[in-house]
Structures are given as C-alpha cells and as structure tokens.
Amino acid sequence: MIVNSAGRIRARIEIPSDKSISHRSLIFNAIADGPATVERILDSEDVRSTAACLSALGVEIDWPSGAPVAHIRGNGMHSLFEADDTLDCGNSGTSMRLLLGLLAGHPILSILTGDASLRSRPMARVIGPLRSMGAQISARKGDTLAPVVVRGGSLRAIDYESPMASAQVKSAIMLAGLYANGPSSVIEPDKSRDHTERMLSAMGAEIAEDGAITRIRPASRLSPLSLRVPGDISSAAPWLVLAAAHPDAELLLEGVNVNPTRTGLLDILRQMGASVERLEERTSGGEPAADLVVRSSQLRGTVVSGSLVPRAIDELPLVAVLACFAEGETVVKDAQELVVKESDRVQSTVDLLTRMGARITPRPDGFVVHGPARLHGARVDGHSDHRIGMLGAIAGALAEGETRIENDAVGVSYPNFWQDLARAAEGGMIKA
Ligand code: S3P
C-alpha cells in the first residue's frame, strides 16, 4: 500500500470490535450449556482461526462470512470431540494459548499449529503450567514451539506464579482451572487484561481477584453468554496517535472499550500532553465503553515503564511514532514482551521508523526515541505483523512524501483499516 502525507485529519470512525473479547466469546461459549449470540463479533483473520479450530472440535458455530453476528451452540464442559486433522491457529497467539488451556481439560488428542510467525513464538509459558496440572503436552524444539500436541484429562489445581504479565497465559490456566480438582490461582507481576475474568464470572464461574492475583474454582457448568462486543482500543490506537501528532486533526472514535486494564495508551497520551475527551460513557458486553475525541496536541517526551506496560502492550510501537513528534526523549522500558509478539516489535519498530528518519535506538526491553524528528516517506516493511503494518501507515500519513508499506497484514485485526485511513486523511491518498 502507498500512503501520502495527510493534509488534514477529520472523521468519525466506528472502531472495529475487540479482538480479545471476540476470541473469548467463541471459546467460552463453546463449553457453555446452551446457545449464545455474539453481536458485532470481529470478522478478522485471527477470530476466524479460533472459529475454525472450534468447529473442527465439533462445536456448532453459525457465522456466515461477512455476518456481524455469530451463533454458538455450547453443549457443556465436556463436549469437544477429537478433530480429525491439525488445528490451524494461523497468526493468532490468543487462539493457540487459550485453546491449549481448554484442551488440557479434554481427554482427546489435539495438534495445534500456525503460520511461520506463530510457530516461532514461545509456547513453553503455557505448556509448563498446563503440564504441572497433569496435561500431556509435547512440542517442537524441546517442547517450546508449535506445532504442539496435547492430550488432556483430569487435572490438578495449581497456584502459579507467572514470570510475565500475560492474559494469554493467565487465561489458559484459568480455562484449565475450570477442569481441575480444586481452586487454582495465577499471580502476575502486574495485572494483565481482565476480559477472561469478566466473561467467565458472567457465565457463573467462581472467580476472585485481588490485585494481580486471580483465583478460579472448578466448575461443572457455565451459562451461555450473549453479548455485543465493544470496539477495540488497540484498533482505536492508530487514530489516537495520528490525530494527536498531526497539526490539523480532530477525530471522533465511536464505541471504544475503555476497560482500565487496556487504557495505558490514554495515560501515555496524557503524560505526553495530549488530551483525549471521553463522551457517552456506557457499558457494552460487560465492559466500559465510550466515544473518544482526539485533537492535534503539543507533545513532550515521557517514560513508559512498570504496570503501565501491560496496559498498553499492543500500543507501545505506536508510542514510538508519537515520540517522533514530541519535544525531548521518550523511553519505553520493562517491555521485553514486545520481542515475542507477531514480530519482534522492538526490532520491527526501530527498523521501520529509522528508514523514515526517526532517531530511535533499541533496548532489550523497549526503545528510546529522541524527538522531534522530521519523518520522510520511505519503502517500509510491515513484517507481516498487523500492528507494524498500521504503524507504517500512520507514520506515512504523518511524514513528508510517499510511504510504501509491504506485508501490512492488517486483516488480522482490522480488515477495513485502509478504507478508514482513506476517509480520515484528506489528501493522504492511498493506493493498493
Ligand atoms: C491478548 C493478550 C496479549 C496481547 C494480545 C492479545 C489476549 O498478549 O498482546 O494481542 O487476548 O489475551 P500476552 O498475553 O502475550 O501479553
């Protein structure tokens, strides 16, 4: 795709549905006692991967291509059948890690695989605790990489101290904990996103939260959960950054999930001097939602670290773009998890922005940006990572001249991204 410098930014954008909640709505309802309807489910490649895996395990899912509503007919906690082929999770870490937790409780053999990116991402972080609970699991490269083979069965409860703040790890253990012989717990270094806690509680699971400790009791049944999925703040993030950094911008972002475990970018924007207005605060799908208004802002450098990191983990590459338009130094640290995302997001962010004229240096746990810097158009690589593809597009709309983005992969989480950018960025002509 080719993006040109945008003269003026004005639009009202309906933010696409939350990817994390969409995955969970399928996975959790698959083992509920009865039918559920999920409105505004995200129709993206990642969520389709989850749906295809569950269908292969015998779950009845009615979700025609292009339909905004999915019907899932759960048949109870022990209803999955052995699939007659491997389960392909595509590019989706959430699909693979959460399904491993679910399958750990089922006495069937499953083989999970994915694309080249997913087959290089660490799976030991879920394999370790699920094995301690009693699941038989093997994987490539010393049981660390997919394909992963799991044969589940009766499980022991676990009190697990996770070395990283990861909602995927926590959720895998919580799903397995539903099938365990007693109460389980997960302690994280900092609290990660809490959609699993909210949704499983709403389905009747007994869950207690105490700071970064989450406890879950085994369950014999879950009630189906019908919901309308709110917009994904990670998909609002490119627009928040574009408008805050552009000199002539105002965007209205509709229906954004503002769950406090996800709003780190809003705090970072405030730290950097941008103000984002929240309008029409409401509840949607058991989550707080609001419309956000973001305008051109004078930005200053900041430090992002500690408990802010998991609350903004998927948005941190975009913070590097903001930092290019800010006065002074911006440091992102404590974010070593960036290295094991869909691409090594420290390296891919640094490579992409360096080509466009940024002064950015990598750290093992983040990066340092010296601002302000004049970005210029360039030929850049999205590394087949949706968040990096969108970062390239936003940087391109803010830079002088023309930016050509290869391997953008935006369909993983935001299929209409290019259309929305074309609407928002006047003069920022976009060509395929
Ligand atoms: C997700 C959790 C995060 C996030 C990912 C989605 C989830 O990953 O980066 O995009 O839906 O649970 P980690 O659990 O690896 O931090």
Largest sheet: 5 strands, mixed
Q: How many structural domains? A: 2
Number of strands: 26
Instruction: Identify the CATH homologous superfamily of the largest domain.
Output: Enolpyruvate transferase domain
Strand proportion: 25-35%
Tell me what the CATH architecture of the largest domain is.
Answer: Alpha-beta prism
Quickly give the structural class.
alpha/beta
As a percent range, the share of helical residues equals: 25-40%
Ligand identities? shikimate-3-phosphate
CATH fold node name of the largest domain:
UDP-n-acetylglucosamine1-carboxyvinyl-transferase, Chain
What radius of gyration results from the CA coordinates? Answer: 21 Å
Note the gap between the termini.
5 Å
Residue-averaged pLDDT:
97
- Give the strand line-up of the largest sheet: 16-17-15-2-25
Shape summary: globular
Low-confidence stretches: none
CATH class category of the largest domain: Alpha Beta
Helical stretch tally: 13
